[in-house]
């Protein structure tokens, strides 16, 4: 998996975060579908990575089976 995201986030641990756009491109899914995954609890609420960019921890994204 190759993900690109701006790393402008301060986190307590060194977990890698993946942007929404990178997840959409990798899985070939829409923004709406990502919203549905958050609603059903498959993905957590997105963390703010940079201005207008949100994302999720890589460990959480690896658990997705789409």
Description:
With about 70 residues, the protein is α+β, with helices and mostly antiparallel strands. The chain has a domain at about 15-60. The chain contains three helices and three strands; from the N terminus they run βααββα. It has helices at about 20-25, 30-40, 60; strands at about 15-20, 45-50, 55. The chain has a three-stranded antiparallel beta sheet. The longest helix has 9 residues, at about 30-40. The chain is globular and about 25 Å long. It starts with 16 loop residues before the first strand and ends in a 5-residue tail after the last helix. The model has no long low-confidence stretch (mean pLDDT about 80).
Mind describing the biggest β-sheet?
3 strands, antiparallel
How helical, in percent, are the residues? 25-40%
- Strand portion, in percent? 15-25%
Strand order of the largest sheet: 1-3-2
Question: What is the CA-CA span between the terminal residues?
Answer: 15 Å
Query: Which spans of ≥5 residues are poorly predicted at pLDDT below 50?
Result: none
On the 0 to 100 scale, the average pLDDT is 81
Number of helices: 3
The ordered string of helix (H) and strand (E) elements is: EHHEEH
Secondary structure class reads alpha+beta
Label the overall shape: globular
